[in-house]
Each structure stands twice: as structure tokens, then as C-alpha cells.
Amino acid sequence: MKTILSCFSLRASLTRWRAFTGTSGFGLRASLSVLPVLAAALLGCLPAWAYPPSPYHLIYGLVRDEYGTPLMDDQVQILLVSAGGSQSQTSIQPDLAVGVNYQLQVPMDTLLKPDLYRSNALAVGTGFRLYVVVGNVTNVPIVSTSTTNYLGQPTKMTQIDLTLGVDSNGDGIPDPWELAFLAAIGSNLSLGDLNANLDVAHDGRTLMQEYLLGSAAFSPENPFAVRMVTFNSGAPILEFPTETSRSYTVLGSTNLQQWAVLPFRLPSEGPSAVTRTNFTASVVQTLQVQVIPSGPGPRAQFFRISSQ
After folding, report:
1. Roughly what angle, to the nearest 10 degrees, separates helices 2-21 and 25-49?
2. Higher-pLDDT residue of 14, 242
3. Where are the alpha helices (DSSP H) in the chain?
4. DSSP-derived 3-state class of residue 308
5. What average pLDDT score do residues 197-214 get?
6. Where is 249: in which H helix or E strand?
7. Is the pLDDT of residue 214 over 90?
8. Does residue 46 register a pLDDT over 90?
9. 55 by DSSP, 3-state: which?
């Protein structure tokens, strides 16, 4: 406020000097000598006027536990710590979006002044790491154990998925899940034998795909598969197994090339079932969904399920 008032006072002074120049030659000489001083002072005020913060940068993603299950507890905190030690944090927000359970608005500064507009404001390119705080335990996600992230541009977004646990073989999949998977399929492989692109179960899916599906590791006798059960008034009813806390989206295509998200209803909800574009499972179950036909134009003949 002091800076704004002083700029206002300088403008008033400048106006008075301009009025003074019309009275005499002496006044003109005096005004010309003082104008550079006033102009310099006014220019010194400009950075204060151009001092607003930059728009924030949005970081978002999915936080999973060591078995690949998305976290649903809104008491869990996601903590951003910059290379300089400043911090920002947010909490888990279940069902924030498909495959998203947290978002963090990172305050950013224009750096037009030597002092930040707030203590935890960051600049473009600042290094940072993310941590997940569960109760009194601060967990270092797999992505943060060997990687420093760098902040992007204001108004932009960065997706960073966070997985808890230990990843001793560096394939991006937590050891507890891999050990459970190996035991479930009766494999004698060790963690050192695994990599994310390996088809361990010989079912056409990579280890990373098995992990992202979620159910295969703990129910190998009932692997993830989509079946078309029947039709109801011309609308196909699909069936597939779900895993706790996973979100599922139905995709359709007419040519196996372009895929689009399709709305659906749950027959188990009866005639008043709501139309939705995704479903988050609260339990392990076999789920049926009735796909709602699209508008004019070719109808989808091929379907697949996206699991997050």
C-alpha cells in the first residue's frame, strides 16, 4: 500500500509541475529539471504494479498402495517438497475423476521481484519430489526414489501417478504385488528375473498390464476378461470382474481403430439406474453393464474396458 500511495503522490506532483510550466520560463526550467527525477521514480513503481503471481500449475494423478489398489482415505496427504525445501500439500479425493484421486495446485511466482509473493511459490523448472503421508508415516513413492520432477509452465498440467512400496528390481511395479503374483501363478521366478514387459503368465499380457488390471494376481483362476452376456432392447450387456477401488470405463469402436467412451447403466440398479461413464468398485465382484446406444450413425460393434 505504501508503494501505491507513493506512486499516486508522484503522479500528483507531476501534474502540479505540468501546471507550473505554463506560468513562466523559470517554471519551465524548474519543471524540466525535476521531471527526470519524477520519471525515474515512476518507473521504479512499475515492478510493484506488475507483481501478481503466475497462475498455478496443476499436478494430478492416481495414488496406489503396494498392491496396486488406489487409495480412498481422504486423510492421506500428498506432499510436494521443492529443492529449496518449500512445501505444498493436498489430500486424497476419491473419485475425483477416472484414474485420478489427487490434484495439487502449485503456486507459482513470476520472479519479477526478488521476494516471492508467498513462501511456497515456485518458478518454472524448479525441482521437486512428491511424498505420501499415511498417518504418521511419510512414504517415498516408487517414482520419487530415483527421479526428481521439474515444475512445468503456469496454467499447464502434469500427471504423476504415485505407487507406494519398494521396487527393488526397478521395473516400476512394487515388490509385494510381484511376489503375490508369482505365488498366485505358481512361478519359481525371482524378482531379479522380472521386468515390466515380461509375459510371466503366458496369457498375452505384460507384467505391467497385469498389475494395472489388478485382479489377475489374486484370482488367476478368474482372469480379467470381458464377455457379452446378452442384449436388452438392442443394447449389449457386458460382464467383467472388478477389483476393489478400481475405476472402469467402457470404450466402443466400429472399426477397432478409433475408440470412444460409451455411457452405460448397471442392470443391478433396476429401472431407475443412473447413466454413467465410469464405475468405481467397492468390492470384488462380477459386474454387468448395459451399454447405452449412441445417437445417429454407426453403432459400436467392438467393446473394451479401461481399468484405472
Report:
1. 160
2. 242
3. 2-21, 25-49, 142-145, 175-185, 207-213
4. coil
5. 84
6. strand 247-253
7. no
8. no
9. strand
* Predicted local confidence at residue 244, as pLDDT: 80
Q: How far is CA 32 from the centre of its chain?
A: 58
Three-class DSSP category at 84? coil
Residue matched to cell numbers 498390464: 209
Cell numbers representing residue 78 in the block: 500428498
3-state helix, strand and coil shares in percent for the chain, rounded to the nearest 5: 25, 30, 45
Q: Which three cell numbers stand for residue 253?
A: 469402436
Question: How confident is the model at residue 8, as a pLDDT?
Answer: 37
- Lookup: cell for 44: 521504479
Grid coordinates representing 206? Answer: 505384460
Q: Which CATH class is domain 54-163?
A: mainly beta
- Look up cell 464405475; give the residue: 279
Q: Do residues 243 and 72 touch, judged by C-beta distance below 8 A?
A: no
Judged on CB neighbours under 10 Å (0-12, 13-18, 19+), 22 is exposed
Q: What is the pLDDT of residue 163?
A: 93
Residue 48: phi and psi, rounded to 5, are -65, -35
Residue 285, strand partner residues: 242
pTM of the model: 0.69
Average pLDDT over residues 77-99: 92
* Measured distance CA(204)–CA(199) in Å, rounded: 6
Among 305, 302, 263, which Cα is nearest to 286's?
A: 305
User: Of the candidates 236, 260, 235, which has an alpha carbon nearest to the alpha carbon of residue 250?
Assistant: 260
